[in-house]
Amino acid sequence: MANLTFLGTGTSTGIPMIGCDCPVCASSDTRDKRLRASIWVQGEGASVLVDTSTDLRAQALRAGIRRLDAVIYTHHHADHVHGIDELRSFNFLQKEPVACYGNRETLERIMRMFGYIFDDHPGKGGGKPKLALNVIEGEICVGSLKITPVPVFHGEMEIYGYRIGSAAYVTDCSKIPPASMKLLKGVDTLILGALGLKSHDTHFTVEKALGAIKKLAPRRAYLTHLNHNIGHKELSRSLPDNVKLAYDGLEVEI
């Protein structure tokens, strides 16, 4: 068994959005306060982070993350990588580089976006993260966790979701190709991005996410990467019995 923590369940702006006074952004319900999307899986001799979100420092402090055996990246968009510098803290704690995994394009883009990390100049002041980049080309094992990449489309861009044992995390998705639907068959716990209620070019809506959940028929499913048009209490009333809205800090066993 392993424990999965939702570190953040919001879209790229976070919720509340800067300068917005809509009912969700102004909500007093803590489940409507959403940091940028990320999860942490711990157990079976492993501590694995999915994405270094913009809010990683706050997320790690709240969840009590003190060790990382691996970071696996879904893709290179800002809200999923811009917390990368916080990995320095784990270098300080662990006295070794942090292993980072992703598809080739993601890692190449990270190297360009954060060139200062990977150049030959020694770090000054607080230093810079020490990272060991690894291209994922198939299943990887971290401790006893078996992690399988699941290619999906984020608009026209192919990115990775991940199957971790009998659970799967698929965010920023607008299309799941047939081969990847096969990889997701039989999952017990499915976590799926559902940006909002209106059609979007690069993300599932709630309706489309529910359609994919119906086809895959997991025992339970959670919707994440939610925007400010989704109020937790209001939308939860209309969801199928096996589907729930994720919220920051939620922990589930997988």
Features:
254 residues; alpha/beta; 7-stranded mixed sheet; 8 helices
What does this molecule look like?
This protein has 254 residues and is of the alpha/beta class. 22% of the residues lie in helices and 28% in strands. The protein contains 8 helices and 14 strands. The strands form 2 sheets. A 7-stranded mixed sheet has the order 6-5-4-3-2-1-14. Strand 8 and strand 9 form a beta hairpin. The longest helix is centred in the C-terminal third of the chain and has 11 residues. The chain is globular, with a radius of gyration of 17 Å. The chain starts with a strand and ends with a strand. The relative contact order is 0.18. The mean pLDDT is 97.
Overview in brief:
The protein is 22% helix and 28% strand.
